[in-house]
Every structure is written in C-alpha cells, then in structure tokens.
Automatic annotation (TrEMBL):
This is Transporter. Keywords: Membrane, Symport, Transmembrane, Transmembrane helix, Transport. The chain crosses the membrane at residues 27-44, 56-80, 107-131, 164-183, 190-210, 230-259, 271-293, 322-343, 363-383, 403-429, 450-467. Its main location: membrane. It is found in: Membrane. InterPro entries: Na/ntran_symport, SNS_sf, YocR/YhdH-like. The lineage of its organism: Bacteria, Pseudomonadati, Pseudomonadota, Gammaproteobacteria, Pseudomonadales. It comes from Marinobacter iranensis.
Amino acid sequence: MSNASSSAASGAMDPVRAKRGLWSSRLAFILAATGSAVGLGNIWKFPYITGENGGGAFVLVYLLCIAAVGLPIMMAEVLIGRRGGLSPVNSMRAITSHEGLKPAWRWLAVIGVLAGFLILSFYSVIGGWAISYVGTAATGQLTGQTAESIGAIFSGLLSDPLTLLMWHTLFMALVMVVVARGVRSGLERAVSILMPALFVLLLVVVGYAMTTGHFGQAVAFLFQPDFSKLTTSGVLVALGHAFFTLSLGMGVMMAYGSYLPKDISIAKTSITVSVMDTAVALLAGLAIFPIVFANGLEPGAGPGLIFQTLPLAFGQMPMGSLFGTLFFLLLIFAAWTSGISLLEPLVEWLEEQKGMNRKVSTLGAGIVCWLLGIASILSLNLWSDFAPLGMFAMFEGKTIFDLLDFLTANILLPLGGLLVAVFVGWYMSRQALESELSMSPTVFSVWYRVLRYFTPIAVAVVFVYNLV
Ligand code: PHE
C-alpha cells in the first residue's frame, strides 16, 4: 500500500488530498457530473437503441433502470469517491484499509478504469462523426436534401477510413488537451454555458419536429408500451444503457465525487444529475422520431439514426444551416465533456500510483486509446465483415466496434455497478454510509434496501438470463 492511500483514509490532514482542492460549489459538481453524463449516449445512442428495441416498452424499462438501479448506484459511487478522496482505485484502497476489508475490492475500480478506456476508443470515433457534420451543415450541404441523399452522405463518411481517422484524431486530441491540463480548470465555466445552449437547441429541433405532422405518432412510439416488442436482450440493453448514460460502473462518479465538499448532499446532487440526463435523452427522442416517421425512415436503422434524420430536419427548416452547425458543435461539446471523464480516472491513477507526470500519463493513455480507435474505424469499412468472436451465437455478426460497445455497456459497466452495490451495501459500515449521506432515516433506509437487495438482484438476473 502506498503512503498516499493509507494516510488518505485518516482524513483531511492528508497532504495528497489537501493538494487536490475541492469543487467550488454544489453547482460545480453538478455541472461536471452532468457534463460527463450528458453526451453521445443521450443524443446518439438512446434514440437508436430505442428504435431498434421497439419503442415504448423499452423506454419504460430504461426509465425504471435509471430510477431503481442507476440512481442508487450513482449515490454509492459518489459516496466512495468522497470518502476516499483520491482516484477511484486509490479511494477503494483507502476505504478498504480503513474499514479492515480485503484490498482486492479495489479491482472493481480497475474494471471501471479499463471500461472507460475501451469506451473512449470508439466514443472518439463517433465524436469524429459529429465533427464532420459541423462542416457538412456549415457549408449548406444539407439544404434541400432528400432522405436518400442524406443517407448517401452518411455512408460516404463511413466508407472513408482516412476522413474518419482525421476526425477521430482531432476529437482525441481535444480530450487529451483538457485532461493533460487538469480537469477542473475551465470545465465548470464551459459546461455552465454550453449545456443550457444544447438544451435550447434540442428544444428548437423538437419545435420543428412538432410541425412535421408526425409528432403524435412519435409520442405514441416512445411512451405507449407494447410489451410484445420487448425482448430479453432489450432489457439487457436498457439496463446497460442506464449505466452508460449516467456514466456509472467505471469510476467517473467516484473520481468527481472525490472533489465534493463534505457539506453537500449526495442524494440531491445525484437526483439532479439523473433527471437532467434523462430529460436530454427524452428530448432527443422527441426531436428525432417525428422526423423518422415523417420521412418514412426506419426507426431501427442503427447507429446512423441521428446522422440520417437530424440533417434532414436542418435541411428543411428555416435557417437550417445555422441551427445544424450549432447543433453539431454543441453535440461535440457534450461528447467532449464525456470523453474527458472517460480518460480522467485512468490518468489520475497513473499519476498517483506510478508517480507519472499528468502530461506524460495523458499522452501515453491517449495514444494507446487512439490506436484502438483505429480498429473501430476499420470495422466500419474495410473490416466490416470481420466478426472476431462470430463463432459464439451471442456475438454473431458483431464487428470490433459492435463488440467494444457490447462488452463495455452491457457487461463491464453493469458488472462494475453490481460490485459497487455489493461493496457499499454489504461491506462498508452502515455508520460510514450514514455519516456521508446524512439524510433522514426513512430515506436512508429506502436507499439502503434498494442498494442491498433490489439493485444487485436485478442486475444479476438480467445478466444470467442473457448469458445462459
Ligand atoms: N455518459 C456518457 C454519455 O451518455 C458516456 C460515458 C459513459 C461517459 C461512461 C463516462 C463514463 O454519452
């Protein structure tokens, strides 16, 4: 055990902790955590998996997963971070040593750090798609297009590895620049302006979507559950997405929680973050599906869905080039703040653990992640028929990109979350939890029961059902 982590458990006198500083306010934490949560998961992924899984019933399961699984785990993760006061892996070490538990628990944070690294590799590629669409929108290429020609622009992009590489490189560089300089300088201010702007632009698109004459159909699609369309794998996808969209199961909330001052309510802040994240996802659905139906597009079109629908809307609405450019700029920004949070836990750990300088660790981790991203790029074109684990039924037809998405969102993140629930619910002392959460005894006991019983059982059942 390193000096840093053993002394961290003893509290605020610790030199490492003292050096790190804290968020300037409750709002600062909310902004950073929301910046991590709101990203491509809400605007790119949520609509397309909803389309693939038949709409209403899937959305209902997703909302249940957010409230009954995601939120309690978010509180548990923030709690671990604040109690440990270090990077996720070392916070886990500090808590286990303080509470006399097995140090092996820190592996749950290691799984998370690994998951974040894997996610960033393909997340950056999608972030690159958004960058490319800024140019497409700004140069007026979307104006007056048809669904076919918009589809052709998108498939043209996917079939061009060099262009994809260029934008992936730019996205990764943007992430690395911020992480190398330390996450908190600048992030607070940027998030507080750009997040509300993204929200307003989404409302503009929803406003446009209301004029398409298919808004009612979209509302019915999203909110009228038809359980005959829900499959067991759909339930797994909904659960996995609850983790993905709230940035859970990989230590982000632990890392950000470690900067949270003691007098701030973990429950209130976690609820705020979850509600905002869900609102953005639902708005994205309301923006996209009217356009899908109005243009006779396929809701289950897959990962390209928003890149084939939103451009159509921007091509038809007044001042569409301007709104389109702004929208994709804000999408890049949302993806950027999430990308930063995906790299941060790994870099923090390298820095603390290996004594590496922040710039060097960012550069090393970023470059390896960038290299891995190239495999995802190639799986969209030259390697599109290559399914590395295709011999197993559950991975049939999955490219490298699909596999990375599946492995992280549907396996690693829920597994990380499950371990967090078990660790906090069954191993940490109740007294430690009560002192961190300081909420009314009734609310505490609801949270505690959900975390101890409901959350682990729900995750385990969904897992077992899908793997067997
Ligand atoms: N929550 C982010 C999104 O919805 C993605 C993410 C996942 C970020 C896990 C950090 C950790 O886009």
